[in-house]
Amino acid sequence: MDLYSSIKPAFVTLLLLAGGGRVLFLFFQKQTRTMWMTIGIVAVLGFFINGPQETINAGNGLIRLVLNWISTIGG
């Protein structure tokens, strides 16, 4: 498990770079259906590589970020 934990950031980075490049390529070719399928596949793969607990924590972090930003608007 230590080996997987040490190379997991590389897996996530490669997945996002490859998926992002593929999505940009499909976007400029105007193949939106294939583009959305690629986004879905990359999201599911990222969920399983990163782990459910860390994915849920990332969502909580985004919600906390938005709430902190909203609380600073009033002054």
Strand tally is 0
For the record, give the distance between the C-alpha atoms at the N and C termini, rounded to a whole number. Answer: 47 Å
Element-by-element helix/strand order: HHH
| Overall geometric form | flat
Strand fraction equals under 5%
Instruction: Give the overall pLDDT as a whole number.
Output: 84
SSE class: mainly alpha
**CA-atom Rg in angstroms:** 16 Å
Number of domains: 1
Number of helices: 3
- Which stretches are low in confidence, meaning pLDDT under 50 for 5 or more residues running? none
Approximate helicity band:
over 70%
Main beta sheet strand tally, sense and closure = none
What would the keywords be for this entry?
75 residues; mainly alpha; 91% helix
